[in-house]
Design a protein that fits this description.
By secondary structure, this protein is mainly alpha-helical. Helix content is about 75%, strand content about 0%. The chain is built from 14 helices and no strands. The longest helix has about 35 residues.
């Protein structure tokens, strides 16, 4: 049995376990890209983690990351994806195909293209300001400067909702029509059917989708960096952006890898929270 599993185990070791172990090891070192430390790699114990405790910018990045995940992944992508899938249930194939292709088109677009597209749309001379100015006559609004977090949240919802929509669409299509028809005959309202029948049946899909979308959103870097660069100031300085700046702008790779462990811990805590809240065993 081990022989048959060995190719998968080797790939798992090379592409999953080794990078994870190296990240943990480097987080306890003074690894740097330039300077004297770059030629003098040494173990520094918990120095990087002690530095994090005194790093006000890190706390700000954690707060920005939680806000971004809450509004972008949990409230935005999951709820909107469920709503679209629910409204498409039972509709004819042409309608479902049209809506599906439209939503999925955003999902398959490269993140950097999405970022620049939203910059062109929300910019001072962008499409949205042209429409607002034409219709109302008011001055252009600097969306990326005045509402940077709202801008990146909306852009990420626009791009990522398709994944939730497809997951919920498959789950909702598996619910037997007889179950809902029996509830309707018993006088149950639409909302009561959703609350007492639909959601309990797709609870496993909700948990899986929440975990995947949360982990994916925790790692969003290109979209935010292309739109705001983490600014203005530190207005959109989420953990991936802050980690990048510490590792590749300040050249402190050891500290950057330590920050990456914070992202890993936050992702694990979210996953445990979802499983406990929805009472799902995996």
């Amino acid at each position: 049995m081990i022989i048959f599993l060995s190719p998968a185990l080797i790939l798992l070791l090379i592409f999953f376990l080794t990078p994870m172990l190296l990240t943990i090891v480097f987080s306890f070192t003074n690894l740097a890209l330039t300077g004297t430390q770059a030629q003098n790699l040494k173990f520094v114990g918990f120095d990087n983690f002690m530095q994090m405790f005194n790093d006000a910018e890190l706390y700000n990045s954690i707060a920005k990351t939680l806000i971004f995940v809450l509004f972008s992944a949990i409230i935005g992508q999951c709820l909107l994806g469920f709503l679209i899938a629910f409204l498409m249930k039972g509709k004819n194939a042409a309608f479902r195909r049209t809506i599906g292709i439209t939503v999925i088109a955003a999902w398959v677009t490269p993140e950097i293209v999405v970022g620049f597209s939203w910059v062109a749309f929300l910019g001072d001379n962008g499409t949205l300001n042209s429409i607002i100015t034409t219709l109302s006559g008011i001055d252009p609004i600097a969306f990326l400067f005045e509402y940077p977090m709202v801008s990146v949240v909306v852009a990420n919802i626009w791009r990522g909702t398709a994944f939730s929509m497809m997951a919920f669409q498959a789950a909702l299509d598996d619910i037997p029509l007889e179950v809902e028809e029996a509830a309707v005959m018993d006088g149950a309202s639409r909302w009561r059917i959703v609350r007492n029948i639909t959601i309990p049946i797709v609870k496993g899909t909700i948990t899986t989708n929440l975990m995947l979308v949360t982990l994916q959103t925790l790692g969003v870097f290109t979209l935010i960096y292309a739109m705001t660069g983490g600014g203005p100031g530190n207005g959109t300085m989420t953990l991936p952006v802050y980690m990048y700046k510490q590792a590749f702008v300040s050249y402190q790779l050891g500290y950057g890898t330590a920050i990456s462990l914070v992202i890993l811990i936050i992702g694990a805590l979210f996953s445990l929270l979802y499983m406990r809240f929805l009472k799902v065993k995996i």
